[in-house]
Amino acid sequence: MRCERNRPLLTRYAIGDLDESLSRELEQHLEKCSECRAELEAEREAVNLLKDVLARSAAPEALAPERKNAIMRSLERRERTPLGSARWIFGSHPVLARAAAVVVLAALAVGAVIFSLPSSRRLAGPAADESGKGVISAVPAVEKKQAALDRAKQDGSPPLNDKSGRAAPSAPGAIAGWADSETASNLRKNGRAAALGQQERQSLEEEYEGKETPAPVAASLARDAEAGGHVFDRKTAREAASQDALKHEVQERPTTELKAVIVGEREKQAGDVCEDLGKEPALVSAAETYRVAAQRAAPAPAKPSPASDAAMRGVLANMRRMGADRRSAGVNASEEQLPSGAAEWQRRMYRIGSERLRAAHEARFASPAATDAESLRKYLEERGVSWPAGSFIAWDAEKGLLVVSNIVSNLDRIESIAAGLARSATGAGQADADTETPAASAAFEPADGAR
Amino acid sequence: MAEHEKALLRYATRLLNDAAAAEDVVQNVFIKLFRRGPSAIPPPEQIKCWLFRVTHNEAIDHLRREQRLRMLHERHLESQTDERAGAGCADMSLDEKRELVLQLLGRLHPRERQVLLLRLDSGLSYEEIAAATGRSVGNVGNLLHHAVKNMARLLADRGALGRTRNLEHAR
């Protein structure tokens, strides 16, 4: 036995961890080696002292109740906010992630209104002007919603009416497309199954290729895309947020104006809310709303050149196919990026899809040109979008984010171009708005949370 | 969780020598665990090691945050303990000795302190320590040896190992 090799064994022996045969071997060595004996003595004494001191030293037996409560509160928050997805967007930066979670939650909270409006701009437009430089924030978005509703009330005008002054279409008592609850339930099950696996998801998409995707399926696909692995949390968050939004809608509006567009699982909730409040549900399908939205879109864009059109379509098809709905977030636009006093400036961020889903579809839909922000910028410029000093476009292929800073009219223009492209991509030549699928339109429209 | 809660609090308290900070750390550890979502929570056979590992990491983060204050504090301690050096084991009260041992634990390298506490205080096996620290069992043995050896040296320097002092004098 060599001393140097023995040293770790000495420690084991001092602690009492050495097995019997090695102990005997070591003891034989110790009889002959005074240096090792001294080392053992010192280590044994140190170990005994340490054990003694550690055993006598107090430590808390349990977490204080308020700390346990804090853990539970964080759990509740976890279930209510899509923190996981926020992290997905902003990486692991805790502050950004938390900020994003707040923004996304707020966006969800106004989701019902966004979906139900022919133009999401009207609702928050005036309030957005008050918000200064278009630095987007979530909480103000909710306040803006309330402010707009209040303003509409005072004016005596139905705020959900469309720009032309005609009443937004409604189909009282009809839940077009998915009135059959059994079918809806089955579809939801399908949607859930799809959320579980890419393969199932793809087969579901293929099943609805070129057809109008039933709302529950579209919603499920959208949820899957949004969630990117956090389906559970996003679903919970969406349900919690939409419940409030729905209640608000139902409470605020007379039945004739009530126009809650229910996407997927919120259908039942809305029914329950209406029942609770003693109101007859006046529900219209998502498709109906999108049809109206398409009708009031800006004049058709100039005929795009096939090449650049394909590039743009690559991006948009990604959005549409993945059911990625528009999602805006409180990007902290630094003031130097936006001209001072330009209340009309906004930054909108479109999320295109999760890494997993994008990868699955990349081969099918994205062309190399589409991943270049500059070609996107040129493409849009050719179609009437100007890029004044301070404007900004970025396409982050890795994160699947398209970020655009521009004045509101240009942003709206971009969206109408996108809607046109989405239509032509879906309808295979049928530009008729009636054939537009909810998912296609939902794919590209910024949330009111941005405004 | 109650069994782990107590063990983790004890471990974190020893690592940080500060019960309140240890509670902060353990609270964060549980939040981290629950935030993982049902599918990402480690299986029961691994959860103990996972918890000890995350507790260690959280404690180290805490120490880093407190580093400046701590450095000042340690400098202060050093002057205090240096004054005591040579006083001899017999002259120290039990409380003083305990205080000294806990302070000296803080002088060890964090990875040495980690394995020492996991073995002597938390009672983890070498295999469990290996899993909790991401090291091999042999590496854990070596670290433990260095930890004990350094601790013995620090204690001897401050006269807290009576017999060792005598032995050294005799040599």
User: Would you report the number of β strands of chain B?
Assistant: 0
List segments of chain B where confidence is low: pLDDT < 50 over at least 5 consecutive residues. 82-87, 164-171
Distance N to C terminus of chain B = 51 Å
* CATH level-4 homologous superfamily of the largest domain in chain B: Winged helix-like DNA-binding domain superfamily/Winged helix DNA-binding domain
Main sheet: strands, sense, barrel of chain B: none
State the secondary-structure class of chain B: mainly alpha
Describe this structure in words.
The complex is a heterodimer of chains A (451) and B (171). Chain A is mainly alpha-helical and 451 residues long. Chain A folds into two domains: 3-56, no CATH class; 73-450, no CATH class. In chain A, 59% of the residues lie in helices and 5% in strands. Chain A has helices spanning 3-15, 20-32, 34-56, 65-80, 83-90, 94-109, 111-116, 120-130, 138-155, 181-196, 198-207, 215-227, 231-252, 266-276, 286-295, 306-321, 355-365, 373-382, 408-427, 438-442; strands at 260-261, 283-284, 345-351, 392-396, 401-407. Chain A has a three-stranded antiparallel beta sheet with strand order 3-5-4. A two-stranded parallel ribbon of chain A has the order 1-2. In chain A, strand 1, helix 14 and strand 2 (283-284) form a beta-alpha-beta unit. Chain A is elongated and about 105 Å long. Chain A starts with a helix and ends in a 9-residue tail after the last helix. Chain B has 171 residues and is an all-alpha fold. Chain B folds into two domains: 1-65, no CATH class; 88-171, Winged helix-like DNA-binding domain superfamily/Winged helix DNA-binding domain (Arc Repressor Mutant, subunit A), CATH 1.10.10.10. Chain B has helices at 2-16, 19-35, 44-65, 67-84, 94-105, 110-120, 126-133, 137-157, 162-170. In chain B, helix 3 crosses helix 7. Mean pLDDT of chain B is 79; it is low at 82-87 and 164-171. At the A-B interface, helix 1, helix 3 and helix 4 of A face helix 1, helix 2, helix 5, helix 6 and helix 8 of B.
